[in-house]
Amino acid sequence: MATHVHRPVTSPAVRVEGLTRSFDGRTVIDDLQLDVRPGEFVALLGRSGCGKSTLLRILAGLDRDIAGTVLVPRRKAVAFQAPRLMPWKPVWRNVLLGLPGKPGREVAEQALTEVGLSHRSDAWPKTLSGGEAQRASLARALVREPDLLLLDEPFGALDALTRVTAQRLVGELWQRRGCAVLLVTHDVEEAVLLADRVLVMDKGVIAYETTVGLDRPRDITDPRFAELRARLLGRLGVDAATKTA
Amino acid sequence: MSISHAPSSSSKPDISAISASDDSPRAAPDLEPIVPSSTRRTRVPRWLRRTSGPLALLALWQLLSSAGVLTAGILASPERIAQVGSDMVADGSLGIAMGTSLQRVALGLLFGAVIGTGLALVSGLFRVGEDLVDAPVQMLRTVPFVGLIPLFIIWFGIGEAPKVAIITLGVTFPLYLNVYAGIRGVDAQLIEAGESLGLSRWGLVRHVVLPGALPGAMTGLRYSLGIAWLALVFAEQINADAGIGALMVQARDFLRTDVIVVCLIVYAFLGLLADFVVRSLERLLLQWRPTFTGR
User: Fold this and answer.
1) Nearest of A77, A71, A74, A75 to residue A9 by alpha carbon
2) For residues A195 and A40, is the Cβ–Cβ distance under 8 A?
3) Is residue B244 part of a domain?
4) CB of A94 within 8 A of CB of A86?
5) Which domains does chain A have, with CATH numbers?
6) How many folded domains does chain B comprise?
7) For testing the chain B interface, which of A84, A92, A127, A129 should be mutated: the one with the most B CBs within 10 Å?
8) What is the largest CA-CA distance in chain B?
9) Residues in chain A with pLDDT values less than 70
10) What pairs with residue A21 in β-bridges?
11) Which of A62, A89, A100 sits opposite B196 (nearest CB)?
12) Model pLDDT, residue B8
């Protein structure tokens, strides 16, 4: 899973040039450049309020008050921090929601099997646990067969154990599907564990980026892992990182 | 630590108590069992508990009537009312009256529901609609609809039309308000999720907005039903020659409190029936709701 060094790519999965977004005169994203290669897993780190979620919403097409060039694949899918399942639809109908044509239930079942949730396909969202709801949300994103998967802190609301399982699941799904992924997170360890490339966003631009040259599956006890994590934490302004190694 | 503070603040017996507990091993606290809710609950079935209150009230009424406290001229006894009621059922007069009244309510409810939800959809879904529809509706809402009866009689005569119109008017506003509030109360996060899933504008309305507005619509329906019966009573007291209200007006002329009470019971029964229908509808349509259902 070697990542290539930067070189001009003919057709990126995401191309952002000179993107600017302001809220009432306050600039949140300031002339930002970003390219994501097809099949690349990119993690976007940043303190809260740095504009990383805004960038994701722009890429998702949910925020269009922008200036600059943003090119994204037509087939893209989002999984939000809250699962945002429609409470009035059973899980499998949630998965199929918005798909073009009249897809049969087996399409949903297949996606649910992929995330290990086929046994809850008839359930109401209110009966799902936090981890199950998040997996349903993932299935809903995957069933669209996206070329770009946008994940907005999808593990943020999960407890520590469920989070580990969910992270592993996302890693597996990405390797199987081969779609480009942009993962917005504030968890440095999660970023280093999953991503090919980690970006740190600050003051509306990509302030720092690094490729993660570690072989998969990655070992968090690997000293190189710890070194990378400490470096990123330093970039995020957390200096106490050295003692955790 | 507590000992060093104790002499200054508390009296001697307290100090000795503290030092005594410090010397000996800590006494075990008294334990109390946490009783499972299944055993804590009474064994009386729910329906029995719910019916016992009204039955007790009925018994009290019969007692007062038998004791002569309530005379027939003021309020007939339950026994007498039951007798008159079964007679009226037997000769068919009650059935016919009920049918007539029920038809008025059904028609009024139908028209009111169509108009109310229609207007709510227009002003809830479109900002233009809101600007055009909401203000006039909010103005009309403040007019007491019962006060329009004279006007309706002039417009529609004294047949069925003014009665249905009054019910329609009464039903329209609560439905409008609740459906509108329901639409505007749909979680913006879900709308956004729907957008991100590629739902079209109509798809958003169908799969996100309308289901999300359903709880509000059901509340509106319940209010509407209550008002529909109220409007029916008002409408039927005037110039009605058929229906429950007409029976009541006749009974008033003959001082028949028993017939009046029978009619009131029928009104109440129909109201209860309508409420039951809506409750069943809610249980069916809103089973996805993650809300507290009571203990």
Assistant:
1) A71
2) no
3) yes
4) yes
5) 14-75+146-244 (3.40.50.300), 86-144 (no CATH)
6) 1
7) A84
8) 96
9) 1-10, 239-245
10) A29
11) A62
12) 46
